[in-house]
Amino acid sequence: MSDIIGELRVLGAKLQEDSETRLKTIQEENIDQDIDTVVKNHSLSLSELSRALGLQTNVLKSFVNDAIEKGLIPPVLQAANKRHLFTLEHCHMITDLLHSSGEIKMKKKLWRDEHEGLASIMVASLKGGTGKTQTATSLAVGLALNVSEAKRVLLVDLDPQGSQRNIMQIDENDELMLTAVDLMLGDKEPDSDYQSLISAGHSHEEIVKASLFDTHIPNLKLLPAHPSDERFNAFAWQEIIDGSKQGGADVTELLKQKVIDVVKDDFDIVIFDSAPSINPLVWSGYEACNFVIVPCATRSLDWSAVKEYLIDLPDKFEQLPAEGKQIKGVHVVATMFEDDKPASDDVLMRMKRHVGDKMFNTTIPKSNAFEVAVSIHRTPLDIRKSEKLVSTRQLDKSTMAINSFVREVKLRLTSHFARTK
Ligand SMILES: Nc1ncnc2c1ncn2[C@@H]1O[C@H](COP(=O)(O)OP(=O)(O)OP(=O)(O)O)[C@@H](O)[C@H]1O
Ligand SMILES: [Mg+2]
C-alpha cells in the first residue's frame, strides 16, 4: 500500500469519527428539558391543534381526554409554562383516531381521501449547486407538516453525495442502511447485505419497507443514498452496451419496479433528490416520477445551463421505457434570489419570460437561514424564532417562501391527482 493510501485511510477514519461526534453533539444540544428541540418546535398547543383540525377547543379537549383515559393515545406532554404540547406524533394519532372513530364529523379531509394515486416528484437539474437538495428537503418537510391533511411523504435520495442523511439526522450506526440502489440491484449482487437478508428469510417487500428511515417528522420517511450508489451507473452502462435487458425490463425501470411500486400504497407523495448529472440513475428517477421540478438559481450561468437542460429534456424522456407519457408537469422554481441585486432580478425576469406558466410564482430567496439550518441538520421550517439561531427577518423570509412554494406545489398536484368523485 502506498503511503498516500494509508494516510488517506487514517484521515478517513478521523473524518468519520468527527461526523459521528458532531451529529451526537447536535442531538444532545437539541434536548431541551427532556424533549428534543425539533420535536418541541413542531409541537402544537391545544388551541393550535383545534385550529389546524377545524374543531372547537372544548370538543377536541374532551375527545383527547377520553382517548387518553381509554389508553388509545399516551398522555400529552406539559411544558414548563403548563402549556400542553401535542407533539406531531400525538397530533397524527389524534387525527387518525378522529377519522377512524367517526364520532366527530371532520370538515377537514385527509390528503388521501381527496387525492388518488401516488404523486412522485423528481427534483432535478444538470447544474450543480442550484438548490435541488434544499428544494427537495424543504418541500418534503413542508408537505408533511400539515397535521389535518396528514400526507404520507417519502424522500428518496438518488444522489450518491448522500446529503439527505446529513440533513435528516438519521442514526446510521444503529441500523443497517440500504439505499435505493441497494434495493434496485438486490437480486443482481451476490454477497450483499440485501442478499443476507433474503437468505435470512425476509421478502423483498419486507426489506424495502424496513429500509425507510424515520425522521423528525412522523409522516416523513427517508430512503438515503451513499457514495457506493454510483455503481448503478457502471452496471447500467454495461447493460446498455451489452444490449441485454434483465428479464425483458430496462435498467431504468428498476427504481419504479423495485422500490416505488412496492411502497406506493403506503405513501401519498414521493420526492426524489437527484445528482447534477445525466446518467442512468437520474433517468431512473424520470421513469419513476410523474412530476419534475427544476430549481434554478437566479444567476446568469445557472440559467444558461438550465435552459440547455430544458431543451434536451423531451428527447431524454422519449428515450425512456414509458417515453415520458406518465409525466404530468415540468416546472421551474427560481432559487437563491437576491432582491437587492439587479443582476439577480434580471435573470429572474428572463426566466419568467421564457418559462411562462411552467414557472412557480414563488421565488426562493437567498438566505443564511438555509445555511444555518443545514449546519444543524434541519430545514428553516424546523427552527423557531425564539431559538435565536438566525435573525427573525431571515427566518421569516425563508419560511414564508417555502410555505408559499409548498402551497403552489399542492395546487399543481391537486389539479392532477384530485379524486373525481
Ligand atoms: N435559498 C438559499 N439561500 C442560501 N443558501 C442556499 C439556498 N439554497 C441552497 N443554499 C445552499 O447552497 C448550497 C447548495 O445547495 P443545494 O445543496 O441545495 O444544491 P444542489 O443543487 O442540491 O447541489 P448539488 O448539485 O451538489 O446536489 C448548500 O450549501 C445550501 O445550503
Ligand atoms: Mg444536491
UniProtKB/TrEMBL annotation:
<protein>
    <submittedName>
        <fullName>ParA family protein</fullName>
    </submittedName>
</protein>
<dbReference type="InterPro" id="IPR027417">
    <property type="entry name" value="P-loop_NTPase"/>
</dbReference>
<dbReference type="Pfam" id="PF13614">
    <property type="entry name" value="AAA_31"/>
</dbReference>
<dbReference type="InterPro" id="IPR025669">
    <property type="entry name" value="AAA_dom"/>
</dbReference>
<dbReference type="InterPro" id="IPR050678">
    <property type="entry name" value="DNA_Partitioning_ATPase"/>
</dbReference>
<feature type="domain" description="AAA">
    <location>
        <begin position="121"/>
        <end position="301"/>
    </location>
</feature>
